[in-house]
Structures are given as C-alpha cells and as structure tokens.
Design brief:
- The protein is mainly alpha-helical.
- It has one domain.
- 79% of the residues lie in helices and 0% in strands.
- It contains 3 helices and no strands.
- Helix 1 runs parallel beside helix 2, helix 1 packs antiparallel against helix 3 and helix 2 packs antiparallel against helix 3.
- The longest helix is centred in the N-terminal third of the chain and has 38 residues.
- The protein is elongated.
- The chain starts with a helix and ends with a helix.
- It is a multi-pass membrane protein.
- Keywords: Membrane, Transmembrane, Transmembrane helix, Transport.
- This is Peptide/nickel transport system permease protein.
- It comes from Nonomuraea marmarensis.
Length: 98
C-alpha cells in the first residue's frame, strides 16, 4: 500500500515537470507570436505599447536613432533567452530526478 502510494506520487511529480516545461515553452512561443503580429500592425492600438509596436514605429528612424529599435528588440531577445534557459533548466532538473 505504501509503495503503491509512493509510486503514484513519483509519477505525478514527473508528469507535473513535463507539463511545466511544455507550459514554459508555450509562453516563449506566445511572446514571439504576439510581438510579431504587433510588428506587422495586428496588435494593440497605438496608445498601448508593446515591443513589436515599438520596433515597428522605430524602423523608419533606424539611421537617425537606432536605439529606438534596438532596445525593444534586445529586450525581446533577452526575455526569450531567459525563458529558454528556464525551460532548459527545468527539463534537466526533471531528467536528473528520474
């Protein structure tokens, strides 16, 4: 009885780790999708700000003020990298326990 319960808890923990990694990966893909759509003009209206809209509005000014496009693009890239590192770490942590 006790061994059966321990086995169930171990299986639940592994399943939870897998779902958490998939969920984190989905967050990164959603961030890229929303930013891409906003860059193309299919996003929140102009009073609202997001990284895709900021890059889109700054593209005509790339020669005069490149930082206006580079800063939001860099923030998006660093956020995507951070999420990818978290996903990788959680994935490796889940493999180490099992």
């Amino acid at each position: 009885m006790v061994l059966s319960r321990l086995h169930e808890l171990e299986c639940l923990a592994r399943r939870h780790d897998h779902h958490a990694v998939v969920g984190d990966h989905d967050i990164a893909r959603t961030l890229i999708a929303v930013t891409s759509l906003s860059f193309l003009g299919i996003g929140p209206p102009p009073p609202d700000t997001d990284w895709g809209g900021m890059v889109s509005e700054a593209t005509p000014l790339l020669v005069a003020a490149p930082r206006l496009a580079i800063v939001p693009a860099l923030a998006l890239a660093l956020t995507g990298l951070a999420i990818a590192l978290v996903v990788d770490g959680r994935s490796k942590a889940g493999q180490d326990t099992g």
